[in-house]
Design goal:
Rossmann fold, five-stranded mixed sheet, alpha/beta, 13 helices
C-alpha cells in the first residue's frame, strides 16, 4: 500500500488529474487555485502532454471543449467569478455531450469578490448559469484525500456519461495541507471511438453540434439528455451520513464544512441530544431521496453553509414540508466553528426538538 504524503489540496487535484490520464490542460491563473496550473505546467511538459496557459478563462474553457470533442481527457481549473465567464461554453458542452472536466476552487463573491474561502458557487454549479435545460455532474470533496478520489471520479464519470463534470472545492480545501495517498486510478477506460472527432478517413464523417434542425429534433435531443440525467441520478448519487438512525436533529453540509459538523454532532451527542450528520458528495445529482426518507423520523434538519443559504433550498425541496429545516450560515471568510454550530443548534431546540 502506498504511503501517505503531506499534500496541499490544489497539488493533490493536479497530480490526481495526471494519474487519471489527463491529456490536455488549459487554464488561466486566478487565486485560490493557481497552484493547479502551476504544478501542471511542469508535470504535463515532462510527460509530453498538452498544457496551455490561455489568454483568458473564455479561451481556456473553449480549448477544453475542442480537445474533449476528440475524445481526449481534457481539464481546466478556475475559481468562482472566472467560472462565471465559462457558463456559455459549459451549456454548449452539456448539449454537445462532451466530457469536459472543470475544477472550481471557490472564493468569495459576488462579482470579483476576494480570496476569502466561501461556498457561494453552489447554485452556479448545480443549476448552471448558461442557457437552456442542462445539468452538470458536481462532486464536492471535504478532505485532501477526496480531492484525489473525486478528481479520479470526475474523469471517469465525464467519459462514462459524456457529460461535463465539476469538482467543486473551496479556498480552504485548495490551500490546506493534510496526509493523503495516491492510489492507482481505479476506473475502467471508456471506449469513445464511436463518437469522438478523430478525422473521417476510412469512415463516414461525424459532427458535434448543438443546433437542432427542427423543433421536434430539439425536443427529442433535450428529452434524451434528461433520460441520461435520470440514469446518472439512479447510478451515481452519493452521500455520507453518520448517526442518523436515531437522530432527532441532522446537521447537513457539503465540502470542507463537513469537518466541523461532524465534530459538532459529537459535542451535541455529549450534551444528550440525538444528533447526526449528512453530507451530499454529489451535489448534482442531489441525494433528495435519502433526505426525504430521513425526514420520516428526523424532527429538524440544520443546514450549515458558508453562503447566504443555497443548498438549504434543495434540502427543503427534498424534505417537502415533512419537518423543519433551519440554516446556520456566514457569507465568507473564517469557517463556522464547532462552537458556533453547537450554539446555533441549541437555539433551535425550543422550537420542538426534545
Amino acid at each position: 500500500m502506498a504511503e501517505k504524503e503531506l499534500l496541499k489540496g490544489n497539488y493533490a487535484i493536479a497530480e490526481a488529474a495526471v494519474r487519471a490520464g489527463c491529456e490536455c490542460y488549459f487554464g488561466y491563473p486566478i487565486t485560490p487555485q493557481t497552484e493547479i496550473g502551476e504544478y501542471l505546467s511542469q508535470r504535463m511538459y515532462d510527460l509530453g502532454r498538452g498544457y496551455v496557459c490561455a489568454e483568458s478563462e473564455l479561451a481556456a474553457i473553449n480549448m477544453v471543449l475542442g480537445a474533449a470533442s476528440t475524445g481526449a481527457k481534457a481539464m481546466t481549473s478556475s475559481s468562482s467569478c472566472a467560472v462565471a465567464l465559462m457558463q456559455e461554453a459549459l451549456s454548449y458542452a452539456c448539449s454537445d455531450e462532451v466530457p469536459v472536466v472543470l475544477v472550481n476552487v471557490m472564493r468569495a463573491g459576488p462579482g470579483l469578490g476576494y480570496i476569502y474561502p466561501a461556498q457561494g458557487d453552489y447554485t452556479q454549479a448545480v443549476y448552471g448559469g448558461g442557457n437552456g435545460d442542462y445539468k452538470m455532474i458536481v462532486l464536492a470533496p471535504s478532505t485532501v484525500q477526496e480531492c484525489i478520489d473525486l478528481t479520479y471520479k470526475a474523469f471517469y464519470l465525464s467519459q462514462k456519461y459524456r457529460n461535463p463534470t465539476m469538482v467543486l472545492a473551496d479556498g480552504l480545501l485548495g490551500q490546506m495541507m493534510e496526509p493523503a495517498v495516491f492510489s492507482k486510478y481505479p476506473y475502467p477506460e471508456i471506449d469513445n471511438s464511436n463518437w469522438a472527432l478523430t478525422g473521417a478517413k476510412g469512415r463516414e464523417g461525424r459532427k458535434i453540434c448543438s443546433v437542432a434542425p427542427s423543433e421536434e429534433k430539439q425536443i427529442e435531443h433535450i428529452n434524451n439528455l434528461f433520460k441520461k440525467y435520470e440514469l446518472i441520478a439512479e447510478n451515481e448519487t452519493e452521500w455520507e451520513e453518520i448517526g442518523t438512525e436515531d437522530a432527532d436533529i441532522v446537521l447537513v453540509a457539503f465540502g470542507s464544512m463537513t469537518r466541523n459538523i461532524k465534530a459538532a454532532a459529537k459535542v451535541l451527542r455529549g450534551q444528550g441530544l440525538k444528533v447526526g450528520m449528512f453530507r451530499p458528495i454529489t451535489l448534482s445529482p442531489f441525494p433528495s431521496g435519502r433526505l426525504n426518507e430521513l425526514s420520516n423520523h428526523v424532527k429538524k434538519f440544520v443546514v450549515v453553509e458558508m453562503n447566504m443559504g443555497q443548498m438549504v433550498n434543495d434540502v427543503k425541496l427534498a424534505v417537502n414540508g415533512k419537518t423543519d429545516v433551519e440554516l446556520i450560515n456566514r457569507s465568507v471568510g473564517q469557517w463556522l466553528s464547532v462552537e458556533e454550530i453547537v450554539d446555533g443548534v441549541n437555539k433551535f431546540i425550543p422550537a420542538g426538538v426534545n
